[in-house]
Amino acid sequence: MLYIFAFIFIIFGLFLILWQASLLYVAIFGSPTVYANSKAVRDSLKLAKLKEGELIVDLGCGNANSLIIAAREFGSRGVGVEISPWCYLKAWWNVLVNGQVGRVKIIFGDFKKGEKYLKKADVVYLYLLNETLEKFEDWYFESISKKTRTVSLAFWFPHSKAVKTIETFNLRKKTKIYLYKK
Ligand SMILES: C[S@@+](CC[C@H](N)C(=O)[O-])C[C@H]1O[C@@H](n2cnc3c(N)ncnc32)[C@H](O)[C@@H]1O
Questions:
Q1: From the CA of 51, how far away is ligand 1's center (Å)?
Q2: Using one digit for the tens of pLDDT, what is the confidence trace for 57-91?
Q3: What value does the mean pLDDT take over residues 168-172?
Q4: Looking at ligand 1, which atom is closest to the CA of residue 62?
Q5: Alpha helices in 48-84 (DSSP H)
Q6: What are 9-47's pLDDT values in tens digits?
Q7: What is the band of 160 on the pLDDT scale with cuts at 50, 70, 90?
Q8: Ligand 1 center to residue 115 CA distance, Å?
Q9: In the sheet that 164-170 helps form, which strands lie side by side, from edge to edge?
Q10: In the chain, where the domains are located
């Protein structure tokens, strides 16, 4: 009996360590894990004029909420890229319980793992810090095609000009969504 308790305790401990370590890692080296409100996601997808059958990519997809809303309410296909093991598992779980396995794919790793999907993306949704956007700005605009509409919630690319900006509410605060085209 004692062995069973010790086993459960160790598994639980490992799970907690994995969870906290992955959140700490992205907070230090990337954009921290803060999930956008559904309203802000919907407004972003409307600004991008996402249509049925189109491909949307979320770099740093977190819990995959944006891709699930896009698939369920806009009829799109989605690809998410996520570096945090915790968020990656959560994203897969959410995709599964929302019945979107056939439409939404989650890739584990750095943003650059999504490069081949960026080339085909109709829409890219981003919710990342300015510092993160600045770091990959050149690579990003080289990777997307001319047809891609990029929407960035709350943060902006420092060296590119948005073609349109609208206001929304996220985390109980007024904030902006920026639309970019190549
Ligand atoms: C602010 S959250 C946004 C989550 C989701 N897109 C949303 O709108 O709710 C940023 C996400 O980017 C992920 N992230 C940070 N750096 C990354 C990197 N280099 N490659 C892939 N994902 C990264 C984090 O783990 C986190 O889940």
A1: 24
A2: 999 999 999 999 999 999 999 999 999 999 999 99
A3: 97
A4: 27
A5: 65-74
A6: 777 677 777 677 766 776 777 678 899 999 999 999 999
A7: very high
A8: 16
A9: 104-108, 77-82, 55-59, 123-126, 149-153, 173-181, 164-170
A10: 35-181
Confirm or reject: Cβ of 91 under 6 Å from ligand 1.
Answer: no
Using one digit for the tens of pLDDT, what is the confidence trace for 136-156? 999 999 999 999 999 999 999
In CATH, the number for domain 35-181 is: 3.40.50.150
DSSP letter string, 108-149: ES-GGGGHHHHTT-SEEEE---HHHHHHHHHHHHHHS-TT-E
- Position 31 scores a pLDDT of 75
Cβ neighbours, 10 Å, residue 116: 10
**Distance, CA of 23 to CA of 8 (rounded, Å):** 23
CA of 73 relative to ligand 1 center, distance in Å:
22
Please tell me the distance from the alpha carbon of residue 133 to that of residue 155, in angstroms, as a whole number: 8
The residue whose CA is least distant from atom 16 of ligand 1 is 30
φ and ψ at residue 165, rounded to 5 degrees: -135, 135
Query: Does the CB atom of residue 124 touch ligand 1 within 6 A?
Result: no
What is the chain's alpha carbon radius of gyration, rounded to the nearest angstrom? Answer: 17
pLDDT at 22: 67
